Amino acid sequence: METILKLNQLTKKFGKLTAVNQLSFEIEKGNVYGILGPNGSGKSTTLGIILNVVNKTSGEFEWFGGQVETHEALKKVGAIIENPNFYPNMSAEDNLKLVCKIKGVDYSKIDEKLEIVDLLDRKENTFKSYSLGMKQRLAIASALLNDPEILILDEPTNGLDPQGIHQIREIIRKIAADGMTILLASHLLDEVEKVCSHVVIIRNGVKLYAGSVDQMNATHGFVEIASKNLEELDSALGQLDFIEKVVKVDEHHRLKAFLSLPIEASELNKTLASQGIYVNLLIKRKETLEEQFLELTKA
Amino acid sequence: MKRLFLIEFHKLKHNKSAKILSILYFVLFSAIALFASIRFNFGAIDFRFADQGIFNFPYIWHFNTYVVAFLKIFLAIVIVSMMSSEYTNRTLKQNLIDGLSKKEFILSKFLNVLFYAVASTVLVFVVSLILGLIFSDFDEASIIFSDLEYVFAYFVKLLGFFSLCMFLGIFVKRSAFALGFLFLIWVIEGIVYLVITFQVEILKPLIQFMPLTSMSNLIKEPVTRLNIVKSTAQSVNPEFVKNYDVSLLSVVIVLAWTFIFVYGSFLILKKRDL
Q: Chain B partners of A151 at a C-beta cutoff of 8 Å?
């Protein structure tokens, strides 16, 4: 598989603070990556380094196998970080023309990309007259201008209203479905969970996990279970060999039993029924990305 | 190179305040020339600047380049604000993300500086040539095209000054502060000049190495060279002799500063996290 970006022991120090600490991971073509971490965990700094705006302290990173210089490589990358940054008095179209000039792209792409983000009829208006949602959509159009090998999005829905968030999310989903490699930094975990195949989790600049979303879920999930007599159920579950541990949740109205084997809910139900225990609630599920994330990043 | 210039020109073309100030600059530029050719008629006094010999070739090269140089402050404002607005709008960051290198960014800004310096120089040449052809008492080609080193000195002067503005814009990041800084340098140089002249004469040769002083040394004041003024000066002080030539040393000093400012801008940008 083709490697687009490779980070090796990347470190950034701001005075005494180590914002990024020996971070290593790889981005491969065709995957959609989520980069997760609490505020101040070093996500934006990491993106800043690979995008040539922040100087690294040590370590390396290489684009496309390290054959080209960073600024040349960036012409094949589309990126928006934090706020959309454009020239306020220029129209959307003129702003995109400038990006075309920098990236060496033909002007003919402009209308095509404005169409994708639904701004074609507003292209004559100046950037400063745009709402935040429109600005963010323009930023996406700008990032797509060169039909990039990889699209990097840092908090693309930050500060948007529900409609704006929905529009951006739809655009991202559409782009991801077309097979583009995406690196998405976001707080909104359900967003990441829906589109990303891989995640990188960092906290205080240190990598906690990098790999596929599925593998992150190495456990076999858990069941939420309840019956009339919770005590009886608790002891019955404790004796089953495929139950790892049982905890009481929901103000002791139900139990949460972690599985150590891939057991179907029906199987568990049958076993319990054979012991004369009838449940009135049985849900088998895996931890959501949010639960795993909170678990992983717990200080 | 052409790509960088086109990028910069695109920014310039769509920047309203830069456009207005640039136009104002070039209009004022021409207006000064026109003003000098107006005939003042106050009853008994019939006076015209143009008749005082200021538009005689080759003196006109010296006079015009000296007089219009103060207008450079207009373009200084344009340059400083174009540099600092790249910071405040965070477009510098976006430019880099889009694939411009820091070196290319500085180079494109320097091309802008160069463009302004060349355009001003061409304009001063053309305007002076026209005025001279109208008012000059001499019109032989050999006289017309003598003393052109003042036009060259004017170019060097603007190049150095605009490079300083570019440096301050990058260094200070806020246009108002950058212009304040420019003023501060001017005041400091003035103080240093006074201190050295009256207190530590031994350091006097160093004065000419200060940036703004070196730029103003390029073209010396032309007024005392004017016939009527000169004769008055000589009657007061018979020893009065002054060298008005453009000295090679001052050209070298200003070009060295230009290099320092441009390279310094690059080093600052390279070191900075945006």
A: none
Class of A3-216 per CATH?
A: alpha beta
Interface probe for B, chosen from A85, A147, A152 (most Cβ of B below 10 Å), is A85
Under 8 Å CB pairs connecting chains A and B tally to 78
Quick check: A81 and B97 CB within 8 A? yes
B88–A contact, CB cutoff 8 A: no
Fold of A222-296: Alpha-Beta Plaits (3.30.70)
HSE (side-chain half, CA atoms, 13 Å) at B79 = 31
Q: Is A81 on the interface with B (CB under 8 A)?
A: yes
User: How near does any CA of chain B get to the CA of A239, in Å?
Assistant: 59
Question: pLDDT tens, position by position, for chain A (299 residues)?
Answer: 789 999 999 999 998 999 999 999 999 998 999 998 888 888 889 999 999 999 999 999 999 988 888 999 999 999 988 788 999 989 999 999 999 999 999 999 999 999 988 899 999 999 999 998 899 999 999 999 999 999 999 988 888 888 888 888 888 888 888 889 999 988 777 778 778 889 898 888 888 888 888 777 666 788 888 888 888 888 888 888 888 888 887 676 888 888 888 888 888 889 888 988 888 888 888 877 777 787 777 76
Cross-chain CB nearest to B101 (options A51, A71, A94): A71
pTM given for the model = 0.85
**Are residues A61 and A8 in contact, defined by beta-carbon separation less than 8 angstroms?**
yes
For chain A, the domains span: 3-216, 222-296
ipTM: 0.83
